[in-house]
Design a protein that fits this description.
The protein contains 9 helices and 10 strands. By secondary structure, the chain is an alpha/beta fold.
Length: 318
């Protein structure tokens, strides 16, 4: 059934089923036909303090309905551009299956979902979940060719192993850097006390990381910051919601004061989308129960939709 004004249905944001942006749901991963595939990864067994990011995908999907007034695109008067017109086909794959207490099985199921999106030539956009879900996301790219990772985060997440744990939410950037097809990392927003010890920072730099705090990023500005990413390199974006100041994003397990504000991240992502091919995205660590206002989930949905708008505007979707 068609939706929209043409058949008398207003279809307001609070009406209907909360898929991402109210886009179509496609549970048959062998039948994906889209430019973008949204994947839920409701896994939070990798957390070291407050859990709850398992509810992130559901919260971000619900928040995204705020931005679903029709599918004719969103006009931005500052940019004089219409983003995400109907020619950009977005589908919601639903969630990877999570097996409680079993990290490896749950991660394998997330990897399967990302591989299905890549096999369909769709841009995989994974909503976590804690940051450990990045590990299976990156594993799924082993046949895709080399790329650079842009990490926007409060924490370096470069722990190698601690008490036998190698696949928690403090490990993903180390696991990514180990992959032969990951050419390097730009790690932005890293600040204050980190879960990664000094040796981890030294290892990260040896393995090709460019590490910048919020204050260093602000001093550079979005254009100079984006210019630090190797030219013409494809880019995978991993965005931890705790990169933002908890004054605007309290709904996360490990908040860290002194974080970014909205436009600082948005303008960086706009520059990167203009300069680089974006091969994948994950947004992680939204734990909605710590934010009764829902603004953290709204921020996450807004960042994702705007970033997708920038990516496909650069590809000629106007």
């Amino acid at each position: 059934m068609a939706h929209g004004y043409e058949n008398g249905r207003l279809d307001l944001p609070f009406v209907g089923i909360a898929t991402f942006g109210k886009r179509p749901y496609q549970p048959d991963w062998g039948q994906l036909d889209a430019d973008v595939a949204i994947i839920g990864a409701p896994f939070d067994f990798g957390t070291q303090w407050r859990s709850g990011a398992r509810f992130g995908p559901r919260a971000v999907r619900e928040a995204s309905t705020l931005f679903s007034f029709g599918h004719a695109g969103a006009y931005d008067h500052e940019d004089d551009a219409t983003y995400l017109p109907g020619s950009v086909r977005i589908v919601d794959m639903g969630d990877a299956d999570i097996v409680h207490t079993d990290t490896e099985k749950s991660h394998a199921n997330i990897e399967t979902a990302v591989r299905a999106a890549l096999a369909a030539k769709a841009l995989p956009v994974t909503i976590g979940g804690d940051h450990s879900v990045n590990i299976p996301c990156i594993r799924a790219f082993d046949t895709q060719g080399p790329f650079h990772i842009l990490q926007i985060d409060a924490h370096l997440d470069f722990v190698d192993e601690r008490h036998g744990v190698r696949h928690g939410h403090g490990n993903p950037m180390r696991r990514a850097a180990e992959q032969p097809y990951v050419t390097g990392l730009t790690q932005v927003g890293i600040r204050n006390v980190s879960s990664t010890a000094r040796e981890g920072y030294e290892d990260a730099r040896k393995m090709g990381s460019d590490i910048l705090s919020v204050r260093q990023a602000r001093a550079l500005g979005p254009q100079a910051l984006a210019a630090r990413i190797p030219a013409k390199s494809p880019v995978y974006i991993t965005l931890d919601i705790d990169a933002f100041c908890p004054s605007i994003a309290p709904g996360t397990g490990t908040p860290s004061h002194g974080g970014f504000l909205y436009y600082e991240v948005l303008e960086l992502l706009q520059q990167v989308a203009q300069n680089h091919q974006i091969v994948g995205i994950d947004l992680v660590e939204v734990a909605p129960d710590y934010d009764p206002t829902g603004s953290t989930a709204i921020l996450a949905a807004q960042i994702l939709l705007n970033t997708l708008g920038f990516i496909f505007h650069a590809k000629g979707h106007r």
